[in-house]
Amino acid sequence: PPTGPVLELEDVVIHYGRIQALHGISLQVQTGELVTLLGANGAGKSTTMRGISGLAKTTTGDIRFKGESITRLAPHERVKRGIIQVPEGRRIFPGMTVLENLDMGCYGRRFGTKAEYQEAVDQVFELFPRLAERRKQFGGTMSGGEQQMLAIGRALMARPELLLLDEPSMGLAPMVIQQIFSIIARINAEGTTILMVEQNAQQALSRSDRGYILETGSITREGPGKDLLGDDAVREAYLGVA
Ligand code: ATP
Question: Which parts of the sequence belong to the ABC transporter domain (predicted)?
């Protein structure tokens, strides 16, 4: 059986034109882990995610998935290997129904049988009963929280080996944020490896195995989620506690 990290970034540098967004970051995600990447606006969190999914080009450094370099692979080739991203801002298809949105998540995945497809849909509906109730409703008419659930459900239809979540709590009400984080923890507990980008330090770190702090394109701290939550500098910067 394969050992070592599922995902490994080594000295990854990413530019936008002449602007250097990432200054050589290294991080790892082990099989089964829930890992949070925390940072302020503009720290480079989305750029890191885009680097992993292949939407942003790596200037130097290496990104490895299950021990193999994927640094030069096109985004769709990374999807085929099981790296599935839920982008910031959700990006569901507003003019399609809930069920049609979920079907879009199967893109690139070969379901052997109708039964297999139905099983995947049932699993998503079991996790998100809200989506089952609204399967015929248009995505665009759902609340922000429901759209986030739909975006996550759609990603799960692809059976990710690594699920990338970019700010899943963004723009949601506190009650809904609690729900989303508890569902994320459940998805992880049921076996999906997750790397999540967040600004909500308390919720994200308290549920994560480990976390990394990103500041202006560099990782400045890392450790178990609960240790980071107890760290004075982290508390001051991200929890507003002096
Ligand atoms: P946010 O929480 O606001 O999304 P972030 O931590 O995800 O912030 P990034 O979006 O990764 O940060 O941005 C990192 C840096 O790269 C910032 O300085 C940003 O201005 C810059 N940047 C991001 N996208 C582009 C782009 N398309 N062109 C030029 N610069 C960019």
Answer: 7-241
